[in-house]
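Run folding on both entries below.
>entry_1
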Amino acid sequence: MKPELIPMEQLSRWADECHRINHLHTLLQRELEAGSLARATELSERARRRAWAMLNDMFAAGIPKPADYCEPDPRA
């Protein structure tokens, strides 16, 4: 399969998402150090949702799924 070119605009959005996820990680680490587990859990979930959305965007753009990728259980 020949990969399609991904527009620079889309690549920039993904780069921005990576930056935001990294920022959430930094905030998460601070909350863990402060002992605020409720806030850390919320930040972790926000990062997870962003990463999952970005991954699905990449798949929709034609990036192949990793060999060990398993589709999520629709019952979960």
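>entry_2
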Amino acid sequence: MFVGAGLALFFMPAAWLPSYYKPIPMGIVAIGYSFLITLPTWVFRPSRERDWFQIALALDLLLCGLGSLGFWNISIIGMFGYDKLIHFTFSASMMVTATYLLSSHNRWSMKKTVFIVALLIAVSGVAWEYIEYFFAAYFHFGYFGTLFDYDSRHDILANILGVMAGLIVIRFRTKRRDLYINVITKTP
């Protein structure tokens, strides 16, 4: 789907697109998204955790792509816009799925994996703001503000809240699994 969208953006007449579209960079990004979704199949052995990670990544990138097509302007609840929703959901879903994937693949403890993934998402959230700034400043691409302005700081806050939501999901699932194991092992 992303490759098709990227190729369509390359070959579609610019007159058919809204004026704020940058077809060539947007096409490159769309094709890059397909590469990112495929990358885990080259790095991780087949597993349920890898599949869930790829599904979450594909959905998150689809939501980002929709933002680039104009959804960034949508305000969902007052000052809470589509942009903040994407920062939150991307961070939350990556926190959960990457934690289970890396823990399973590397046989790390959940505590170690949670710490590493949370740190990676925190660093990625700040890097995301630099990437948005770079594309806005040099390619005039996107709806991005100034680096670390009000909007940018709230994007990072949404990332942090997403990580916290992911931690809650992981904790709930771990407690539920431990309860299940305790019931199974105590049954005669």
